[in-house]
Amino acid sequence: MSQLSYLSGSQSACESAAWSLEEANGGDGLLGMLPAPKWLSHLLGLAVLEPGVSSILLLALLALGTWILVKGLAWVQRYYVNCQRLRCFPQPPLKNWFFGHLGLAPDTEEGICYLQELSRLFSDVHIWWMGPFTPTIRLNHPQVISPLLKASAIIAPKDKLFYGFLKPWLGDGLLLSKGDKWSRHRRMLTPAFHFDVLKPHVKIFNQSADIMHSAISLGLWGRDHDHHHPGASSRILQAKWRRLCAEGSNYLDMFEHISLMTLDSLQKCIFSHNSNCQEKPSAYISAIMELSSLVVKRYNQPLLYWDALYYLTSQGRHFSRACRLVHDFSNAVIQDQRCILAQQGSEAFLRDKAKSKTIDFIDVLLLAKDEDGKALSDKDIQAEADTFMFGGHDTTASGISWVLYNLAQHQEHQDHCRQEIQELLRGRQPEEIEWDDLSQMPFLTMCIKGSLRLHPPVAMISRCCTKDIQLPDGRIIPKGNICLVSIFGTHYNPAVWPNPEVFDPYRFDISKSQKISPLAFIPFSAGPRNCIGQNFAMSEMKVVLALTLLRFRVLPDKDPVRRKPEIILRAESGLCLKVEPLLGPSSPEAHLSEAPQE
Fold first, then answer.
1. H and E: helices and strands count for the chain
2. Is the distance from CB of 457 to CB of 523 less than 8 angstroms?
3. Which of 404, 464, 579, 585 makes an SS bond possible with 159, Cβ 3.0 to 4.6 Å?
4. Is the bond leading into 430 cis (omega within 30 degrees of zero)?
């Protein structure tokens, strides 16, 4: 009886609902009996519009829906075909279907160890899913890396996913540009890294290292002062490393000190500007360091990948403000030099530079012309200067810091390096590294290369394939995919390097290095898009390391170091080493009497 009452009530409710719908539609019948356009009009609230307007809007909506459907089906087809073509490559187990492999290799020591294990399990290539719809191809063997790195900038440009956040800061510099623009800029910038231009920079590297070790002030050095004798007005203000050691602070964070030192050198080499950033705060240097930090933070916050949202946040506003400060500084230097060039003319400008033997990066770019006689615009010069500052300070600082770490762990190699440097500089006063000395330190060079293999400053580089790329074994990387050339994975690949976790400088002995594939050791990348400033970086590393080992003994910290990959390879809590001053003719105290007195 109760079931019949329930059915009767339900039937009455349905009849009432149908009657209400019929009334709402002007008595034309039930909603299910309406023609599709009229039904859509009621559903979308278009019934109040004129019939003609309503029909146009409906057609537009139907066209939009059809377009979305067609695009969606086309994307599904491409995704399916791409997945089928990628089945020839192995992949490690997924974290889950939605995140793919995200989270399996965090930016921690454990994440690095996981990547080392992947290099052992997958000796050449494997798939790495960044979410459910974005496969990337990781390459970690010279044979499979070769076709990608040797491809032109048009076939394998840098992708926007990993480099896009740097665009507002670096613009279309060499790091981010592609195609014909990249090729043109590369040709025009090459003279800036010629040996004749690099030679005078060795003096700057010596001075910056002196400041880091002993805080020898070079405050009067710059464009407006004596270029013939940049250190002529120097005076010792205070000890830095030595003062800290004397006060009992023997454990120093290498990154903290060496990053400021490389920034100091770069400002002098790029802009001929001395900010004294190793001795006092600099707004420009602070902005550079803040930009690097903000880019790292954004990489770790996927919700802020969308520009419209990011620039509404405090992080985005800080990023914009720091960008403006950096751009204003570089633009002011460019305008000043362009005015001087216009007043003097290029020939007189070059004569003055030849006399002072200090032609900087901006000077070369202002004078550069392409095959058609066209010069770089101010915007192009600014982008290249900002790119050089970004690419030159943290990577070199990371390289130097990890070399000192490895030499602290292996005192026998450190002693060998020190002996080599002492013999090279024997009888010289003052003890200063010169250009010709850079090729006379073979064991130090081997230690630098050994450290760059074990602790590469940049863990990977990415490329987006605009065409299919065939690997030597016949497998094909389909176009449209992002490829990650794993520098770290290649350097830790046991199929390439026996006992890859061991620091062994003798791997790079000349007699052995000839047997090593050129693509087995790629801290500066390789191919047409390799690092244009690698000779600059290696020169600075040799000078700073030679002077440091001559003046100090470095010892390991009692706490183990945990690696942390960011834009460059860092240490989680800083890379602290114990520093002990060495007495000898190279000690700054030995030359106190030589410093000009006021």
1. 23, 13
2. yes
3. 464
4. yes
Q: Which residues contact 429 (CB under 8 A, 6 or more apart)?
A: 585
To the nearest 10 degrees (0 to 180), the angle between helices 283-299 and 314-344 is 140
Structure token pair of residue 373: 């006689």
Annotated binding-site residue? 464: no
Distances (CA, A) of 260 to 91, 255, 367: 41, 8, 29
- One pLDDT digit (tens) per residue for the chain, 598 residues: 444 344 344 445 444 444 444 444 444 444 444 455 555 556 556 555 556 656 777 788 889 999 999 999 999 999 999 999 999 999 999 988 888 998 899 889 999 999 999 999 999 999 999 889 999 999 999 999 999 998 888 888 887 777 889 999 999 999 998 888 999 999 999 988 888 889 989 999 999 999 998 754 333 333 433 333 333 333 333 347 777 776 666 888 999 899 999 999 999 999 888 888 888 888 998 999 899 889 988 887 888 888 999 999 999 999 999 999 999 999 999 998 889 888 888 777 777 776 666 778 988 899 888 888 899 999 999 999 999 999 888 999 999 999 999 999 999 999 999 999 999 999 887 789 999 999 999 999 999 999 999 999 999 999 999 999 999 999 999 999 999 999 999 999 999 999 999 999 999 998 876 778 999 999 999 988 899 999 999 999 999 999 999 999 999 998 899 999 988 999 998 899 999 998 765 554 444 434 434 3
d(CA 540, CA 1): 96
Burial class (CB in 10 A: 0-12, 13-18, 19+), 521: buried
How is residue 386 written in tokens?
């900002």
Question: How far is it, in rounded angstroms, from Cα 164 to Cα 178?
Answer: 13
Domains of the chain: 36-88 (no CATH), 179-594 (1.10.630.10)
Order of strands, edge to edge, in the sheet holding 460-464?
Answer: 125-129, 135-139, 482-486, 460-464
Cβ neighbours of residue 498 under 8 Å, at least 6 residues apart?
Answer: none
* Amino acid identity, position 144: V
Amino acid type, 488: F
Which residue, chain included where needed, has tokens 């950096």? 326
- Residue 376 and residue 382 in contact, taking contact as beta carbons nearer than 8 Å: no
